[in-house]
Amino acid sequence: MRVLFVCLGNICRSPTAEGVLRQQLQAAGLSERVEVDSCGIGAWHVGKAPDPRAHEAAMRRGVNLSSLRARQLAADDFRRFDYLLAMDRANLAALHEQRPAQCPAHVGLFLDFAGHVEREVPDPYYGGEQGFEEVLDLIDAASRGLIEEIRQRLEVRRP
Ligand code: 4NP
């Protein structure tokens, strides 16, 4: 099973989601069965490490993002991943624009797995530290929901 998180710059929200889901998969004993990656719609930050504010906020919860580097969404991602999960509706619209015909992957909003009223992870880039905490809270809840779904799909697949 392969999961790709998508935001605008791939330096704040989607690398945070990558780190948090990885940690939760590890705790759930599923890290061998699920591959996680993240990317950005835009190319401005390609090759850069996550925003230091995102890294520090994640570190306060025991999640280390320092090895991650930004990359841009590629056409091949629609073939490689089972889930392409957007942080907000603008990211989702960009995914739908680039999605090839007959792409079997699940392309949707990440927060649909959170069971919250919020549907979007707000862009924290131009805000303060509190925005990064809110991003983590939303991502934490959605990751738990996603793991439940993945667990069920893996169990169904098992002979
Ligand atoms: P992200 O945040 O999409 O969560 O990585 C942003 C990072 C950079 C920019 C916008 C959003 N930017 O405009 O450079």
From TrEMBL:
InterPro entries the record matches: LMW_PTPase, Ptyr_pPase, Ptyr_pPase_sf, Tyr_phospatase_low_mol_wt
Source organism superkingdom: Bacteria
Keyword terms, alphabetized: Hydrolase, Protein phosphatase
EC number in record: 3.1.3.48
Positions of the Phosphotyrosine protein phosphatase I domain: 1-149
Pfam (any one): LMWPc
This protein's name: protein-tyrosine-phosphatase
Organism this protein belongs to: Billgrantia montanilacus
